Amino acid sequence: MLKSVISLIALCALTTPGLSQTAKKKLPPRAPYSASLTDTLGMTCAEATKLVLSKPEGVTLRTGQNRWDHYFHDAEYCPNGASDLVPEFVQTRDNRTCNVGFTCLSVAPN
């Protein structure tokens, strides 16, 4: 009985593509998360503000090398019960202090 179980396992291992020894595909390296985000440094202040206003759920924008944040235009979409909006100013192509929208101030748990 044990011999037939071992034979069955060996047969399954050889015929199952995922278990047989095949050459593994090498995936290309992934870019850092911030590299895939829209960069405010390449936008005008008006473009960045319009983008935030067009996304009710907010939008994550890159604001420099390895720097990003999630910006909102309305507290209704703030996560985890946050209710206060904090004005945020970022650098854009044409404005060093562009008010693109707000970040949500987290409410401390009681």
Computed Rg = 25 Å
Determine the strand fraction and express it as a percent band.
Answer: 25-35%
How would a crystallographer describe the biggest sheet? 3 strands, mixed
User: Oligomerization state of this entry?
Assistant: single chain
Q: Could you give the order of strands across the largest sheet? A: 1-2-3
Structural class: alpha+beta
Sum up the overall morphology in one term. Answer: elongated
| Strand runs, count | 5
Strand and helix order: HEHEEEE
Mean pLDDT: 76
Unreliable sequence segments: none
Q: Separation of termini?
A: 62 Å
Helix content: 10-25%
Question: Count of DSSP helices?
Answer: 2
Keywords for this structure?
110 residues; alpha+beta; three-stranded mixed sheet; two-stranded antiparallel sheet; 5 strands; 22% helix; elongated
In short:
The chain is α+β, with helices and mostly antiparallel strands and 110 residues long.
Layout of strands and helices, then pairs:
Elements: H1 2-15, E1 38-39, H2 45-54, E2 59-64, E3 67-71, E4 84-90, E5 98-105
Parallel strand pairs: 1-2
Antiparallel strand pairs: 2-3, 4-5
Task: Describe what you observe in this structure.
- The protein is an alpha+beta fold.
- It has helices at 2-15, 45-54, and strands spanning 38-39, 59-64, 67-71, 84-90, 98-105.
- The strands form two sheets. Strands 1-2-3 form a three-stranded mixed β-sheet, with no helix packed on it. A two-stranded antiparallel ribbon has the order 4-5.
- The model has no long low-confidence stretch (mean pLDDT 76).
